[in-house]
């Protein structure tokens, strides 16, 4: 019987290659092949099998070592005494492991695999440090510290007393940026340690505080010196206040708990400080720029400029996305190749549902903060400048060096405003139907290198091939290859970005087709403010609000006009001589100074600016205005401000003033321009010399050199605009309020601009965060009584006022959280979403007719 058993041991024996990081788990082995045996396993020594394995399995790695069933390595002297029977598995498989002159040790840097090294395990830690620095030099170029097998940090003084064994976690050593402290996170629900190579399933995941100084660079930094970051915050949160103020607050608190210093405007910018200067300083001195991408992000002046400035200064941009697609339409070119962290990780949840924005979920903010920290930890251990151009690093921007940027930049970055070497470049953005106009301008610009945008896009100009749906968001978050995939789908946008960055001047050939094209709109959003832009009118068109907000309405060259060729080429020369940029910068500085001067003349309170028609067209509009003024006077901490013209503004303010004479609860202010060359006598008390008289009641303040400039000033100075009826002037005011990220309350049932006419931007009809749907819907109800509409208006103003007061840095966080939780929970009980757009119902008799002419 024994002889039969021994002979049965002969025959086929499998050979498998064990996984180096998990030699104890044979389920992870790689099958290499089989060998044939003529002797029983008990009669064969391991040393006798080496040549047989090499001869019969050509793919076997050499040199190799045998390992036991449990994964323990066997040295060459032990092979002489051990028989095959002692180490073969029950499945008749012999396991081997690739061997090296020195053991192979994995390196986990800040919780992420960084590579491996070869080192004698008895070596002191100083040798281990040298090996990591030398063998992983392309990845690790900053100071770090070890943690021992107990997850305790090892100081520099202790390293001389320890060797590699003391910091080995099975076959892995762990390091963290210098200044971090590591602790076991018992409750972390994120990636477990078992997901990382070389760590046994029983190990807890390390959670580390953040380095004092994040070390990030981008490809752009290779071509210019990096500005200093003294007195700056590591992270800057950029957001639309009306949509994500509370989210930004929660996220800042959670990031602070993780060890980051975070810039949040309401906490950092003191009263009396120039807002634009403070934000410019903050963006310049932060290391990572985190925009909260809500529906209006990039479509307001401040967020639009902040994200562009961050891009120009080569800041790492790591967005938090609230949308169900990527990239956002208005930032599609800039963010097309940028990865993001989704706010809502549940793809089944609808976009911006009450659970997303109304319910302020601290657990969700904590989860997002941890995802941001994980991403930044991983990147902080790498020198991005050494990564090859084909790298998929999520925080590396793939674009050419930006030149000819008219943004006001620090002196040490002044080269960004200089033109490229060689022939200057002009980029012409146009719709394919205006290709012949593009070729005409190209012929005129024979002294320049000219690029037509139509030559950069392979598909139709209205293609949405760059957008990813909500279903793709989870895949994007989890897939390491996302960045390369996204690049492959957005090559046209990347080509445009490269040319736009290099161009000295950008020309828009504007037509109806251009204005309707989503791709052309993306081009305008990308180039505006970062380039000197020259708009050219190709045909008559109706200017949409988004376009006039970006480039204005008074600087067009008409390609059909006599003498166009000479005027156009002259303007191009002025643009390249920097005269155009200097003029724009001076106008912006003058406007900011006038806004500041106006605000210093007014109390630091919340104002409701009244915009609308100067003549009543609706049969009940006057009564409604009187009721609104009367009811607003019952609110505390609210002042009324008007443009000083007849009609809606004076009626609301007069009623408010009469009511407040009894209570002394609020005040009325009128902001008039110093003068205006147009005849405004039909709508105001204008003097023969074109100046304006003071309004008989309230306080009159003068600001701006004309009505148009006054409209731009008030839109920056005040937080709330109420729109009742209104013509082109009122529409422009509402447009500017929206562009500056302020709240517009349109009384839609009154018609005119308030109902969507005169190209007023559609975003003003989106219900503000926290406002109850029943009140917002009442604004469009033509059958509701004036009293009912007025009470709804007051409730909306009260909600917006309270939210603005909660944004103040003087408010305690606990009080702020309580307010937002109660208000938004109540507002969302019967809502389908916070940004519901309410459209005006069909017009009834007595409302404003389509062809009515409004004075403004």
TrEMBL record:
Give the highest taxon in the source lineage.
Answer: Eukaryota
- Pfam families linked: LDcluster4 (PF18306), TIR_2 (PF13676)
The record's Gene Ontology biological-process terms are: signal transduction
For this protein, the record's PROSITE patterns field holds: TIR (PS50104)
Where are stretches of biased composition, namely Polar residues? 823-835
Q: Which parts of the chain span the membrane according to its record?
A: none
Q: What is this protein called?
A: TIR domain-containing protein
